[in-house]
Write a structure and sequence with these properties.
9 strands
């Protein structure tokens, strides 16, 4: 299982509007990030709508954007982490537009972009080891069925000392793709089958609709559903 990918939860700095946050993220920050060696794919997922949340507090996970940053392989990720970009330039620039960042290592391979489809992303804490099987079965049985979905276990998490972060980070991410005519509010709303059943295998979680912005796209074929 290759670990050459990071999925990071971002929360914008207080005082920045959503548009200001997105402009800096897609502009100056992306320009810095692209100087990392070995990038295979880099997607900015701009959170456009909260679809579902299960937590004792207001949010299980609070964020304004989700980064998917995939490297060619594990060695490329190691080299990138040792670069000046990761050690100095990115952390310095994050202070300009972020209040919090949580960086999670996951396996490579999940689809990041898909023209003509709508993307939903879940960050969650599985209730128990057997919950992974339940999650997979449940996502495969959602009606209307997603065009594709993927599930990634978190292999490890880290943070920046200068910024806030999730003290209890997610241990799983899931990505679901739907046809545009499907109502995600109906599929994941308060009276949906998902909302009734998901808390039995997800102890804490938040699910968002995301608009994708591909910064670096791979020339390799996208993977099949898994």
């Amino acid at each position: 299982m290759s670990e050459g990918k990071r999925v990071s939860l971002l929360r914008r700095r207080s005082g920045l509007s959503v548009s200001e946050f997105r402009e800096h993220w897609a502009g100056p920050h992306a320009a810095i990030a692209c100087t990392m060696p070995g990038i295979a794919r880099y997607t900015q997922n701009r959170v456009s709508e909260g679809l579902w949340n299960h937590s004792e507090s207001k949010y299980a996970f609070e964020c304004d954007g989700i980064v998917e940053l995939e490297f060619r392989d594990e060695q490329s990720m190691v080299e990138a982490n040792a670069s000046e970009t990761v050690r100095t330039l990115l952390p310095q620039d994050e202070l300009n537009f972020l209040a919090a960042i949580t960086l999670c290592r996951v396996p490579i391979g999940a689809r990041q972009t898909w023209d003509g489809k709508v993307k939903a992303m879940l960050a969650g804490k599985l209730a128990r080891a057997s919950s992974l099987t339940r999650l997979h079965e449940f996502l495969g049985g959602i009606e209307p069925r997603p065009a594709e979905f993927s599930i990634d276990l978190v292999l490890g998490a880290s943070h920046r000392e200068e910024l806030d972060f999730e003290r209890d980070p997610p241990n799983v991410f899931a990505t679901l793709w739907f046809d545009p005519h499907h109502s995600l509010k109906t599929i994941f709303g308060p009276t949906s089958h998902w909302s009734k059943m998901a808390p039995s295998f997800i102890s804490r979680g938040t699910l968002w609709r995301c608009d994708t912005l591909a910064i670096v796209e791979s020339s390799t074929p996208e993977p099949k559903t898994r």
